[in-house]
Amino acid sequence: MPPTHRPSALATLLCGLAGLALLLTGCAPDTSSATEIPPVVDSHVVQAGNATDISRLSGRVKAAEHTTLSFEIAGKLERVAVDVGDPFNAGEPLATLDDERYRLVAQQRRAEAREAEASLIEKRQDYQRQSSLAEKGYVSDTQLDTARAGLDTAESRHASAVAALELAERDLAQTTLTAPFDGSVSARQAEPSERVAANQAILEVISDREGFEVETSVPETLIDALSTGSNHKVSFPALGGITAPATLTQLGTQPRSSHNYPVILALAEPPKGIRA
User: Fold this and answer.
1) d(CA 226, CA 216)
2) CA 147 – CA 126 distance, rounded (Å)
3) SS3 labels along 252-265
4) Residue 234 and residue 60 in contact, taking contact as beta carbons nearer than 8 Å
5) More confident residue, 60 or 148
6) Is the Cα dihedral 206, 209, 210, 216 positive or negative?
């Protein structure tokens, strides 16, 4: 009788597991239509590369060309022909000094110049005469040298008298303060009958020919983001909030206060009604 083979324990275990798997497969519900769980990823907010930060700064409008007018000489202010806000044209007289003293000085210098000219003519004729006689041997070299020295002195005195006359006439002309350009008066700092010193401010004026500009201050956190020639917009609350394009023309390198730098914006097309 052949020997009987008994299945090993391992084979029996594997068969049992296989049967259990078939059983579970047959009894498990269909999960093919179940919602899949998405994988977890990092999230980021993406900003457009051309996004621009907007910073609003306050400033003041001023004339692009402005100056303070004064007399180069001292005297008593006789007349101021314009007041604040008055327009004027280039070359128009704006203020005058009492010119009596300067007229008298000019008259004195004219007389001195005429006297010096007469002396020069006399010394020149004397030298020519002495030179002619020296050629004929009638006068010595010493006499000729003396005539030459007298002529040189007369020429120097005449030149000095002419220069003094020109200065006197210039001072006389300086008694009238004229407009350097077309514009208007922004401030008046002296009144008639007042004695004023040389270079003392009389009028502050602004020009019409260079338009307007805006002056503001930029904090140091923004200064590196600006460059000369860059374009910006300026809003005018006093004119109903209208805006105008402006170009950055000056960028300060030294702060006015602890952290603010001066900036100048030129207005290419100033809106109607704008004032400094």
Assistant:
1) 13
2) 7
3) CCCCCCCCEEEEEE
4) no
5) 148
6) positive
CA gap 224, 230 in Å, rounded: 12
Q: Which residue is associated with the tokens 């007289």? A: 93
- Tell me the pLDDT of the chain averaged across its residues: 81
Phi then psi dihedrals of residue 84, to 5 deg: -60, 130
Q: Are 259 and 220 in contact (CB under 8 A)?
A: yes
Task: For residue 33, give the amino acid letter.
Answer: S
- With a threshold of 0.85, does the pTM exceed it? no
pLDDT for 27: 43
pLDDT per residue as tens digits for the range 175-220: 999 999 999 999 999 999 999 999 999 999 998 776 788 888 888 8
Kindly give the pairing relationship between strand 242-251 and strand 231-236: antiparallel
271, 274, 222: which is closest to 248 by C-alpha?
222
| pLDDT tens digits for range 85-143 | 999 999 999 999 999 999 999 999 999 999 999 999 999 999 999 999 988 888 888 99
